[in-house]
């Protein structure tokens, strides 16, 4: 009773303070819910279907795997770090109640590794219903892939370009099937540097990242053009700003003042589960079956940036990418 009286006294003495705290709390909660975005509402079953997810051992890839496994899919986690992948597979099986989760080795920075994975899938899988090109690297230093390509363009685009093309026959055989490419709104700031695709003249981590994310959007568009009538559809998407380890190369390089400003906003950004929703939506939503080549955000279509709608650039990028992977 004394405690209740003390609380009443505090409320009567500081009504404005209480009001400010209450309004701020409600406002932050509202912003948090808004930032979380929409949720995929589809109840589609994936019984008898096979899904391959690159980078499915962490972040939105793992959360996507959990959801699709719960729907009954056989899920292949294609990952570089096999220890982490095996631990993730065990977690996915436990959370989903589905033991049809397998791990395969994939290093997207090695086109030989990409080809080996594709051969393994073609030799051992009877079908492939959904290919989710999820793995990526963001704003890393000026590194090179095993084949000598700029790392972000090599991993985020070229590796997935080769993997997808190697698996197209199986995807067509399994149609209707889908290809889902995880891009970003960062593509809006990007351009394809056709005369310096590896950015050897002037490298900048963010410049490289935005180029690779634009490449994802253009690749999706050209896939749609090339696969008309096959029953294979393609989708690119922005998952949102998410709390994952994707930004591990950015944080150490960020000035202290930016870290101080950014830290409070960590509360507002999406969790991996929230960030996975648009990927899941593109993989299972029944109403998208006759759509292809479009860009999505928050479980809804979103118009890509003008440079992401350029069919001529999409075709040019496809031809350049094919030439680059064929030389290795």
UniProtKB/TrEMBL annotation:
Supply the source organism for this entry. Gymnodraco acuticeps (Antarctic dragonfish)
Q: Does ATP-binding appear among the keywords?
A: no
Question: Any idea what this protein is called?
Answer: Retinol dehydrogenase 11-like isoform X1
Q: What is the lineage of its organism?
A: Eukaryota, Metazoa, Chordata, Craniata, Vertebrata
Which InterPro entries does the protein's record reference? NAD(P)-bd_dom_sf, SDR_fam
Q: Which Gene3D superfamilies match?
A: NAD(P)-binding Rossmann-like Domain
Offer an example of a GO molecular function term for this protein: oxidoreductase activity
Q: Which Pfam families does the entry link to? A: adh_short
**Keywords assigned by UniProt, alphabetized:** Oxidoreductase
Q: Which PANTHER family match?
A: PHOSPHATIDYLINOSITOL-GLYCAN BIOSYNTHESIS CLASS F PROTEIN-RELATED (PTHR43157), RETINOL DEHYDROGENASE-LIKE (PTHR43157:SF26)
Family the entry assigns: Belongs to the short-chain dehydrogenases/reductases (SDR) family.
* Superkingdom in the source lineage: Eukaryota
